[in-house]
Amino acid sequence: MTSVKLKLKDSDVQKLKEIALSFNNEAGELINVLHKAQEHFGYLPAEIQEVVAEELNIPVAKVYGVVTFYSFFTMLPRGRYPISICTGTACYVRGAEKVLDEFKRILKVPVGETTADGKFSITCLRCVGACGLAPVVMVGDKTYGRVTTDGVKEILKEYENEE
Amino acid sequence: MAKYKMHMLVCGGTGCHASEGQMLFENLKKEVQDNNLENDVQVIATGCFGFCEKGPIVKVIPDNTFYVSVEPKDAKEIVAEHALKGRAVKRLLYFDPVRKEQIPDSKHMGFYKKQLRIALRNCGMIDPENINEYLAADGYEAMGKVLLEMTPEEAIKEVMDSGLRGRGGGGFPTGLKWQIASKNHADQKYVVCNADEGDPGAFMDRSILEGDPHTVLEAMVINGYAIGATKGLIYIRAEYPLAIHRLKIAIDQAREYGLLGTDILGSGFDFDVEIRYGAGAFVCGEETALIHSMEGERGEPTFKPPFPAQSGYLGKPTNVNNVETYANIPVIITKGAKWFSSIGTEKSKGTKVFALAGKINNVGLIEVPMGITLREVIFEIGGGIQGGKKFKAVQTGGPSGGCLTEKHLDTPIDFDNLLSVGSMMGSGGMIVMDEDDCMVAVAKFYLEFTVEESCGKCSPCRIGNKRLHEQLDIISKGNATEKDLDNLRNLSNVIKDTSLCGLGQTSPNPVLSTMDNFWDEYLAHVNEKRCPSGVCKDLIRYEVIAENCVGCTACARNCPVNCISGERKQLHVIDQALCIKCNACLEKCKFNAIAVI
Ligand SMILES: Cc1cc2nc3c(=O)[nH]c(=O)nc-3n(C[C@H](O)[C@H](O)[C@H](O)COP(=O)(O)O)c2cc1C
Ligand code: SF4
Ligand code: SF4
Ligand code: SF4
Ligand code: FES
Question: Fewer CB within 10 Å, N side or C side of chain A?
Answer without folding.
Answer: C
